[in-house]
């Protein structure tokens, strides 16, 4: 009876998603998109920011990626804007929603303080200089690099997830005072290189992604985000992008979307959507049938060798390669090779050290990627 109850709970708590579907392309204004969040007040609008190469500008883009609003935070500075979160006022004011901009990037871990800007989502003009407030923060245990900001839609509580540790760290942002506020350490997370995160509009699901995977937690009705993230996360569908640093739920909570910074030589950057599903079977059916299929598996009789299987829709010049978690090419398998249909080949990867990698297939019309691991031999 106890086992049956546990299994039933596990099924209820499981989360499923399909995709990816390309739903649009990131506007060229957002050449280094590092965070995005859906507005719940303005239909089909996502707030987004660029990385440190841009000024203090908050962009509003529609669901296909076109920028339709530019709000400038005059007097603010973009030291290293890395994420955007959206949610209620932290003071309990239910009449207004806020866009929170996280100036929290610190590659060399040398910033003594970081900053979060809060912009009330008021009916400004499409292009405007907007009012904002800010909170200056410091870590209790020394400077850290971070790229993830979470906002609890139920309470307005803010959380930061760091990036560089072997086990990324979760910190709670205290209520602001007139001085420098100290972040509150919550817990360690079982992954590294976190680049973005979001909370579903109803507060029931929390996602945090890195360059390889999207991790998700189902949250109970009376459970805090801090308590939810102390549990082991589930891995959700994600196709590793060249430098994926943005994730956001849709405003209706039926899907999550991801986007990458622009890769050298790419004319456009796709926005990918992953629709949520009730069952694994439904999730399997929610896929783009035009997208190339890709698989990789170790050969049992040749140590360090792997069997690759993939499809090329139509005839196309392809690139096929393996890259590491930092995005660098570790093994080029095919470059500008003309192929069509189902392809199978064995490839020697014995020169690669154990660890996580991505198999990438580029055709004329598609980018497809698959994470895999090389185990210690």
User: Overall pLDDT, averaged?
Assistant: 93
The tally of helices reads 3
Described by its quaternary structure, the protein is: single chain
Number of structural units classed as domains? 2
* Helix share, percent: under 10%
User: Rg to the nearest angstrom?
Assistant: 21 Å
Tertiary shape: globular
Summarize the structure.
Helix content is 6%, strand content 49%. It has three helices and 28 strands.
Which short descriptors sum up this protein?
377 residues; mainly beta; Tachylectin-2, Chain A; Immunoglobulin-like; 2 domains; 3 helices; 6% helix; disordered N terminus
How would you portray this structure in words?
With 377 residues, the chain is mainly β. The protein has two domains: 270 residues, Tachylectin-2, Chain A; 81 residues, Immunoglobulin-like (Sandwich). Helix content is 6%, strand content 49%. The protein contains three helices and 28 strands. The N terminus is likely disordered.
List the helices and strands and how they pair.
Elements: H1 2-13, E1 16-17, E2 21-25, E3 33-38, E4 45-50, E5 57-62, E6 67-72, E7 81-88, E8 97-103, E9 114-120, E10 127-129, E11 133-138, E12 146-151, E13 158-162, E14 169-173, E15 181-182, E16 184-188, E17 196-199, E18 205-209, E19 214-218, H2 225-228, E20 234-236, E21 244-249, E22 255-260, E23 270-277, H3 280-285, E24 294-298, E25 305-324, E26 329-348, E27 355-362, E28 367-374
